[in-house]
């Protein structure tokens, strides 16, 4: 005798309100950014419903810092990292999933250890390495420590393992080489994993800050996050209208992509997480 | 970017044309220069403009001016570039980095670069207070460029509302307290307007340098190897700062954020703020009320540290490059350029004759607050600067914050800081 | 047969080689070099670096800031991990159920994940600023006195923790959401027919089934509590008086502001040791299913 109506206990309404309240709280910083960026400076910290709208803050922010260049740098950076990660992780994951070789288990544990010892911890020593390689203040220098990603190797290995061995055997009978098999059988079948991993990687490196801060010196290499930190550094006096406008500019591509492909985003992250 | 390239290309073509038939074009010298910006405003454009002027006047020298973030960033970048083999030849860096740079063997003294009598005379053209941070071991290592002091901004409307004379800002520590009490407005348990705010994040040691000097005490010696953190006058100064909040209730207790303070002042949440002269232009453009700028008040005397960036010349450069760098620095510190720089940014004119130029004279007449910082130079002293400067500075910053937030007494906090500073500086004595 | 095996050896290692080179160059070599450097003094132009044994470690044990920062880091972990995990579960359960406006709510929860910490720190600075900030504007409506959130050593770490929870909960929610969708709906149905309360069902059925996810999320959360320091650069710079400074931020400061790479390496060794301990714990405790399948 449990009709849906009876289930709608008062706790149901309480929970609904709670869920919404939490959602509001969670989105509040972004809402504030929109408020302050689209209103004149006088309204940056006072809230009046009928305050006039303006785009001046965006104009000022855009003119005050070379955002176009920062966008380009970040774009080059995430593309470069992603491409390298795909190649390196695919090869390594294939080795772990389908080959037997001495030292495999130790090697795998060493890879997994990198999940713990992430590049952020080693900024001091990696900086020394980069300066020896003459790569300080280059976009390559920002990207290098992240290219062999333990997470990526792990994720792809798990996916490759679910692909039936018979497919590989069949391809070999047709005379495909190992690399051809990888390219024609494994990679296409692991597409959802690549998309998932790609989204995670792009959003991570789009937002990464500490290492790029350490390793870059100039406008021509600085990614958005570092540019934004210099642009909005409290040293120069906080002007929220302009800073929020700059912030929105910096997050816009990712945010728009997220809003458009929300479902894919969430599912990708889920996919990356389940494995 | 493109227009810049075009401009560069144009200049190069011009340079080539000029040198045609005289010498080969290979003699062009390329200089790399880092510079920081610590206070708001579109400074990069102004610097680009000045550099372009220089290149026009000296077609055989090409200058890459690179904006490197805040002072700390600029120092790290310049030192890193030095090690990685693509060094800069000259840079604007924090005036207090001098000992660090000497210890790293990074810079040369100007005394070793200047040749002619005219150049030597040029070294004497600047305000002595601004040269203090650039001199040690009997030599000059830094030339003042983007320099500032602390001044007191006050809200004249708030003064009127509190029945105070808006043309008589507090001139002594007692007046700061008594006027501060009148200016502090409460409704219920809440304070609507504070009397005064002195920022204690970001650069607390700098603000504290002012209070200590006003109490007749410098924070370190001229060799950069001895600090005076636990001197009785230093402790008194910190006690006074703490009392403003806790005893007199004219300032919020706890620390006050450097970055948001200007906004607090513009919103009328505080009637008085101490801040860098570098904020003058922004405050002028945004204040919706009548505001004034005054010298900091006095206890035993008036006092403020200077602050900001100096020009340095790097060791790792050829004699030709050093000469070219000197030429650049001399060009940028000419009285007319200095005046232009000061008007556009709010930084100090670094030499007396800059204030004699027509441009700056007219500006000061139209906007008298611009002269306050200059007049205060008479009472100014060097900013805290020692060997191991980053660490020593942090020791003092932490001590100040510990005292202001009440986790240690001023005497205890400063005593601890002195002990640790001694430990660090022993080997430089 | 043996030829195939040795061929497989070579292939395996060749495929692994590119990634291995990168891992060695940017993870294992620097880790070892850091350890080595911690036994040397910091060299300057006037005084070259020399072997000093455990002197750097002795200095560290004597360094009040180190102890404070280490303690802060523990508090930071203790403050962020349980709450963000609890919130993540709550969010996942809500978003997985029949909530009106479900997808908008889910989006709201998840958005902080894709925003850069460095950018949102400035927005949070506005929330926390005394008198003019949002928190104080709201509390003023209720007649509460204003509070200097970031300027008070008793509240500053809490403020930093709140931001981290905000940033992480939505991210962890995703993992729980994925796990919840693998639970057969009949379970809940059966529990309801038996008259079990939702809380009972959660405690006795759902939570135990989510255990592998919780362990996975836990490891992530622990790592992040050592790694997430971006917001300090904007909000507090570790102040007041190091009350909000964390180990990695202190390492950055020592290395790049004090230019003392030797001591920074010593601190890094401690951080690496802590992470290694956690890693060992992970291999020891963690259900093998979660990682090796």
Keywords:
heterotrimer, B: 429 residues, alpha/beta, D-Maltodextrin-Binding Protein, domain 2, eleven-stranded mixed β-sheet, two-stranded antiparallel ribbon, 18 helices, globular, disordered N terminus, C: 293 residues, mainly alpha, MetI-like fold, 14 helices, 75% helix, flat
Characterise the protein shown here.
Chain A is mainly α and about 280 residues long. Chain A has two domains: about 5-55, no CATH class; about 65-275, MetI-like (MetI-like fold, Orthogonal Bundle). Chain A has helices at about 5, 10-40, 55-65, 65-100, 105-115, 125-130, 140-145, 150-160, 165-175, 180-190, 190-205, 210-215, 225-230, 240-260, 260-275. Chain A contains 15 helices and no strands. Chain A is globular and about 70 Å long. Chain B has about 425 residues and is an alpha/beta fold. Chain B is about 45% helix and about 15% strand. Chain B is built from 18 helices and 13 strands. In chain B, strands 1, 2, 3, 4, 7, 8, 9, 10, 11, 12 and 13 form an eleven-stranded mixed beta sheet that branches. A two-stranded antiparallel ribbon of chain B has the order 5-6. In chain C, helix 3 (about 65-95) runs antiparallel to helix 4 (about 100-115) and helix 3 packs parallel to helix 7 (about 155-180). Chain C is flat. Chain C has one domain (about 55-290): MetI-like (MetI-like fold). Chain C is mainly alpha-helical. The interface between B and C is medium-sized, with 39 and 31 residues.
Count of distinct strands of chain B: 13
* CATH architecture field of the largest domain in chain A: Orthogonal Bundle
Estimate the global geometry of chain A from the Cα principal axes.
globular
Q: What is the CATH class name of the largest domain in chain A?
A: Mainly Alpha
The helix tally of chain B amounts to: 18
Oligomer: heterotrimer
Q: Which consecutive residue ranges of chain B, at least 5 long each, have pLDDT under 50? A: 1-26
Strand content of chain A: under 5%
Give the domain tally of chain A. 2
- What's the structural domain tally of chain B? 2
Query: What's the number of extended β-strand segments of chain A?
Result: 0
Q: Please outline the major beta sheet of chain B.
A: 11 strands, mixed
Largest sheet of chain A: none
Determine the structural class of chain B based on helices, strands and strand pairing: alpha/beta
Q: Mean of the pLDDT scores of chain A?
A: 85
Structural class of chain A: mainly alpha
- The gyration radius over C-alpha positions of chain A equals 24 Å
Q: Tell me the fraction of residues in β-strands of chain B, as a range.
A: 15-25%
């Amino acid at each position: 005798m449990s009709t849906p109506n009876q289930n709608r206990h008062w706790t149901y309404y309480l929970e609904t309100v709670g869920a919404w309240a939490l959602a509001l709280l969670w989105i509040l910083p972004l809402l504030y950014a929109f408020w302050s960026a689209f209103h004149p400076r006088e309204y940056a910290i006072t809230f009046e419903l009928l305050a006039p709208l303006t785009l001046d803050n965006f104009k000022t922010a855009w003119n005050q810092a070379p955002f176009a260049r920062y966008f380009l740098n970040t774009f080059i950076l995430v593309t470069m990292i992603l491409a390298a990660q795909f190649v390196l992780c695919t090869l390594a994951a294939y080795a772990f999933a389908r080959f037997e070789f001495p030292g495999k288990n130790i090697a795998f544990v060493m890879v997994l250890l990198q999940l713990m010892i992430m590049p952020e911890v080693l900024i001091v020593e990696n900086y020394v390495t980069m300066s020896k390689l003459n790569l300080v203040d280059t976009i390559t220098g920002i990207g290098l420590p992240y290219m062999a990603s333990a997470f990526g190797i792990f994720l792809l290995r798990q996916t490759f393992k679910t692909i039936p061995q018979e497919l590989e055997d069949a391809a070999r009978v047709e005379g495909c080489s190992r690399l051809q098999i990888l390219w024609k059988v494994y990679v296409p079948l692991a597409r959802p994993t690549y998309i998932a991993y790609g989204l995670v990687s792009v959003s991570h490196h789009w937002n990464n800050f500490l290492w790029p801060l350490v390793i870059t010196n100039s406008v021509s290499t600085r990614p958005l996050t570092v540019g934004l930190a210099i642009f909005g550094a409290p040293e120069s006096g906080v002007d929220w209208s302009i800073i929020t406008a700059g912030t929105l500019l910096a997050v816009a591509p990712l945010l728009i992509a997220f809003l458009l492909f929300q479902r894919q985003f969430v599912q990708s992250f889920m996919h990356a997480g389940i494995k | 970017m493109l227009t810049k390239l075009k401009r560069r290309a144009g200049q190069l073509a011009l340079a080539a044309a000029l040198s045609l038939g005289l010498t080969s074009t290979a003699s062009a010298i390329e200089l790399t220069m880092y510079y920081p910006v610590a206070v708001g405003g579109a400074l990069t454009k102004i610097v680009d403009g000045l550099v372009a002027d220089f290149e026009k006047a000296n077609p055989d020298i090409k200058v890459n001016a690179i904006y490197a973030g805040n002072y700390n960033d600029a120092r790290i970048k310049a030192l890193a570039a030095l090690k990685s083999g693509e060094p800069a030849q000259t840079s604007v860096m924090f005036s207090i980095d001098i000992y660090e740079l000497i210890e790293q063997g990074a810079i040369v003294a100007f005394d070793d670069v200047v040749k002619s009598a005219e150049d030597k005379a040029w070294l004497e053209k600047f305000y002595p207070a601004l040269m203090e941070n650039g001199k040690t071991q009997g030599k000059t290592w830094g030339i003042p460029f983007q320099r500032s002091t602390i001044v007191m901004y006050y809200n004249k409307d708030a003064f009127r509302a509190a029945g105070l004379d808006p043309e008589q800002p507090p001139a002594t520590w007692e007046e700061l307290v008594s006027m501060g009490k009148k200016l502090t407005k409460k409704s219920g348990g809440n304070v609507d307007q504070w009397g005064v705010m002195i920022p204690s994040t970001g650069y607390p040691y700098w603000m504290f340098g002012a209070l200590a000097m006003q109490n007749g005490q410098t924070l370190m010696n001229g060799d950069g190897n001895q600090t005076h953190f636990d001197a009785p006058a230093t402790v008194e100064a910190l006690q006074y700062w703490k009392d403003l909040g806790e005893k007199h209730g004219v300032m919020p207790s706890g620390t006050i954020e450097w970055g948001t303070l200007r906004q607090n002042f513009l919103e009328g949440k505080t009637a008085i703020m101490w801040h860098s002269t570098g904020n003058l232009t922004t405050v002028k453009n945004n204040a919706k009320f009548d505001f004034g700028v005054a010298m900091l008040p006095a206890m035993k005397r008036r006092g403020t540290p200077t602050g900001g960036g100096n020009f340095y010349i790097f060791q790792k450069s050829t004699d030709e490059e050093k000469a070219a760098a000197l030429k650049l620095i001399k060009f940028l510190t000419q009285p007319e350029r200095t005046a232009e720089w000061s008007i556009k940014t709010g930084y100090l004119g670094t030499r007396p004759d800059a204030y004699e130029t027509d441009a700056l004279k007219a500006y000061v007449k139209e906007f008298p607050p611009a002269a306050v910082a200059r007049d205060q130079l008479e009472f100014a002293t060097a900013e805290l600067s020692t060997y191991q400067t980053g660490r020593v500075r942090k020791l003092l910053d932490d001590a100040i914050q510990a005292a202001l937030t009440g986790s240690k007494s001023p005497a205890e906090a400063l005593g601890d800081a002195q002990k640790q500073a001694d430990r660090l500086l022993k080997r430089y004595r | 047969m043996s030829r195939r095996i040795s061929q497989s050896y070579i292939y395996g290692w060749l495929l692994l080689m590119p990634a291995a080179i990168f891992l060695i160059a940017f993870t294992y070599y620097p880790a070892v070099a850091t350890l080595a450097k911690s036994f040397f003094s910091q060299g300057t132009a006037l005084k070259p670096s020399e072997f000093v044994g455990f002197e750097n470690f002795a200095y560290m044990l004597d360094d009040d800031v180190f102890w404070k920062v280490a303690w802060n880091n523990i508090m930071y972990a203790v403050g962020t991990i349980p709450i963000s995990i609890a919130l993540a579960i709550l969010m996942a359960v809500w978003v997985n159920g029949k909530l009106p406006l479900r997808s908008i709510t889910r989006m709201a929860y998840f958005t902080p994940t894709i925003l850069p910490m460095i950018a949102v720190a400035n927005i949070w600075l506005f929330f926390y600023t005394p008198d003019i900030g949002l928190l104080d504007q709201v509390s003023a409506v209720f007649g509460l006195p204003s509070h200097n959130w970031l300027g008070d050593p008793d509240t500053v770490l809490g403020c930093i923790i709140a931001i981290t929870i905000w940033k992480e909960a939505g991210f962890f929610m995703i993992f729980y959401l994925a796990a919840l969708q693998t639970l057969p709906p009949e379970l809940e149905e059966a529990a309801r027919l038996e008259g079990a309360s939702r809380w009972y069902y959660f405690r006795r059925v759902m939570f135990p089934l989510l255990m592998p996810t919780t362990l996975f999320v836990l490891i992530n959360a622990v790592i992040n509590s050592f790694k997430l320091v971006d917001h300090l650069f904007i909000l507090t710079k570790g102040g007041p008086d190091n009350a909000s400074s964390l180990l990695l931020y202190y390492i950055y400061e020592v290395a790049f502001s004090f230019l003392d790479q030797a001591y920074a390496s010593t601190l890094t060794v401690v951080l690496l040791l802590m992470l290694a301990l956690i890693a060992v714990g992970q291999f020891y405790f963690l259900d093998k299913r979660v990682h090796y399948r």
